[in-house]
Amino acid sequence: MERTLSIIKPDGVARGLAGEVIKRLEQNNFKIAAMKMLRMTKSQAKGFYAVHRKRPFFESLTDFMASGSIIVMILEGENALGRYRELMGATDYREAAEGTIRKDFATDIEKNIVHGSDGPETAAFEIGYFFNSFEITG
Ligand code: ATP
Ligand code: MG
């Protein structure tokens, strides 16, 4: 069993796509072990995406991530990391495979609906960033 962190980004929540994303998670046999809605401050967004701090899009990305409500979830399942990244599709929606969340809904490389951890160490950091042990029902 693997755990990964999923975020429905501010564009996904604002566009009313949360239900659609959660439906796809359920249909694809992910167990939602924890979930909450919150809004990050700019400084929390910078901490979350610290690995990208030297990238040219860092300021814009962290402004965007702090611009509205997000839904944060812990997903559990066999190969959850890889399977969830597959369900999201490529970062750039133009390169995402048919039937993926980003292919179906994203219209911008930055505002791409969802986030998913990219490896086991990142997942552990990201889960700890948002959840304490009492909030994980899994
Ligand atoms: P995420 O980490 O959000 O799940 P990802 O792993 O597919 O997405 P990363 O390379 O980690 O992509 O980039 C993090 C986020 O930064 C992307 O999801 C997107 O919102 C934004 N981003 C990535 N590349 C660009 C870019 N070239 N221009 C603008 N924003 C970008
Ligand atoms: Mg990433």
Please give a structural write-up.
This protein is an alpha+beta fold. It has a single domain (2-133), classed as Nucleoside diphosphate kinase-like domain (Alpha-Beta Plaits, 2-Layer Sandwich). 40% of the residues lie in helices and 19% in strands. The protein contains 7 helices and 4 strands. The chain has helices at 10-14, 18-27, 42-48, 58-65, 80-88, 101-105, 120-130; strands spanning 2-8, 31-38, 70-77, 114-116. Helix 3 (42-48) packs across helix 4. The longest helix has 11 residues, at 120-130. The model has no long low-confidence stretch (mean pLDDT 97). The site of adenosine-5'-triphosphate (ATP) has 10 residues, from strand 4. Adenosine-5'-triphosphate binds at residues 52, 57, 61, 91, 109-110, 112, 115-116, 118.
- Mind telling me the CATH superfamily name? Nucleoside diphosphate kinase-like domain
What's the CATH C level?
Alpha Beta
Q: Tell me the strand order in the biggest sheet.
A: 2-3-1-4
- Count of folded domains: 1
